[in-house]
Amino acid sequence: MVIGNRYLQGTPILPYANVKAYPGTDLFMDLQFVDHTNTSVVPTSISIEIDDITNSVVMAGPTTLAPAGAVGSANTPFTYGAFASAMALQVLGSAWQMTFPYIGSQLCQVGMSFTAIDSVTNQPFTSNSVIAVVELVALATVSGLPY
Q: Alpha-carbon distance 118 to 41, whole Å?
């Protein structure tokens, strides 16, 4: 396990956010959409999915986001504004639940696919990526009940 700055320790910089969180807490992600020339683009469609990759379980999605924005609910736990080249995504705590709370922690992968118009070719393109890996860490209690 790497502690501290990955680059200074000679390990690779990860191409995605790598964070730890407690179950049931909201997470915020800043998104920036660019084409192959690193020019900012506004997506025409966005799909997102959250998977428990420790236990091979889908936690949320796949969900196609609405271009006008939305306020999250238990069924679709994503809050965001209208599509823009830079936007914030709030994933509600209802999406971040431990599959098996007694195992201590689980890795969750946030995958996203978006379509936009390329600034050079003026043609639509689709980009698929992992935007974050979140380690959910269970809170230990004497009673064994979650907070």
A: 7
